[in-house]
Amino acid sequence: MNDQPKRPSRNPGQSGKPGKPHRRPKKDPVRILAFEALRAVDERDAYANLVLPPLLRKAREKEGPDKFDGRDAALATELVYGTLRRQGTYDAIVAACIDRPLREVDPPVLDVLNLGVHQLLGTRIPTHAAVSASVELARVVLGDGRAKFVNAVLRKVSQDDLDGWLERVAPPYDEDPEDHLAVVHSHPRWVVSALWDALGGGRAGIEDLLEADNERPEVTLVARPGRTTAEAVLAEVGEDSGLPGRWSPYAVRLAEGGEPGALDIVRTGRAGVQDEGSQLVALALANAPLEGPDEKWLDGCAGPGGKAAMLAGLASERGAVLLASEKQPHRAGLVAKALDGNPGPYQVIAADGTRPPWRPGSFDRVLMDVPCTGLGALRRRPEARWRRRPEDLDGFGPLQRSLLRTALESVRVGGVVGYATCSPHLAETRAVVDDALKAFGGAELIDARPMLEGVPGLGDGPDVQLWPHLHGTDAMYLALIRRTS
């Protein structure tokens, strides 16, 4: 019988040395939240702007305001949006640091890596802190084995800055301009081509546009006509937190970090969150000259209700009535909520705009803001650039043409139709308008530029294309069409 005392257990590979006690990974609520948001975007095709707010509320409730404050929320938001915007660039950098094809890296691992790369190359977080925080996150959500892989890759990434990495992973501009811009500015190549075709011009303009897509957009409020004024919104926001809009007399821009939902004027519906480009589209239609009466207006694709609320207010001020139509019942409910409190009469219905229940020639003004690829709002929905495919245009095109034909049939002779889309892609803008005018016959384009007095850089007309880098708005497109027969 052996009465010798038992020796301490040893870890494999450390013969003769006592094993180190296992250390639990530190749970960082900010980075765990960011990881959960990225997984929701990838796994459920969710949108970050819809996923993030409930995750932030949950974190505040769980951790308490002392452990999860406004700075934590701001960092989590930056990590999510920054990683999504620069995903293409970061993928190329990670691919240069591993010995396998990128497609063989599990998506959760790649999310952790890209979060780490963004902290290293896209923020002011110190290198050591960015690497260690990312490795701890990997230990929590992936396990110790994969955390070692994350650590090895991020240490390679940390050996150079962003400019240095771009020189290594992006092809030279002279050899392949579109691929160079795609890697440097983190857009799919086909999107770069489409935006460049729509914008025209040389290298400087397209680089300015792509870079604007990667900047955090301002939060813009709209003072809903008939319910309040921009001056009243500014008074509630305060001089230090708000600025007048650049172009719309109803716009107020919030300072960085402002929370519109905390404002009473927003909670009560007198004001709402709305990009200034969307406001300009509604204003241009309302300002277009008419021949004859101006009593009945239609928003034929009204969801979720921002433009409809503005049009309803403008119509009320003139004694006109707005009919807001939206195909999806739940979105029609959002429209009704946005219009609740409008001072004048209006109606909201759930109806298919390609098979409308109203009689032809019933309206004096018609807005048809059609479903599209959303390439004009990549600042706000950065994940859309990676989710959309060129073949999506084949699905949207017939619907856009059908809805524009409905609009032309719905307006009376002498009335005006506004065709709008949040995409600058030529296949969704001028091609649709040209085809519809040829097929319909009794309509003509009118110059939309005078309806946006004071807005520069609107091109040769008669249609209007807004741009993030020129106007600080989403890339909204608008054509104004008068029915002639």
Which characteristics define this entry?
single chain, 485 residues, alpha/beta, four-stranded antiparallel β-sheet, 20 helices, globular, disordered N terminus
Notes on the structure:
The protein is α/β, with parallel strands linked by helices and 485 residues long. Helices cover 46% and strands 13% of the residues. It contains 20 helices and twelve strands. The strands form two sheets. Strands 5, 6, 7, 8, 9, 10, 11 and 12 form an eight-stranded mixed β-sheet that branches. Helix 6 packs antiparallel against helix 7. The radius of gyration is 26 Å and the shape is globular. 43% of the residues are buried.
What fraction strand?
5-15%
The number of E-state strands comes to 12
- Tell me about the largest β-sheet: 8 strands, mixed
Shape: globular
- Measured between the Cα atoms of the first and last residue, the distance is 110 Å
Q: Percent of residues in helical segments? A: 40-55%
Mean pLDDT: 93
Radius of gyration: 26 Å
Number of helices: 20
Q: What structural class should be given to the helix and strand makeup? A: alpha/beta
> Which regions have little confidence, pLDDT < 50, spanning 5+ residues?
1-16
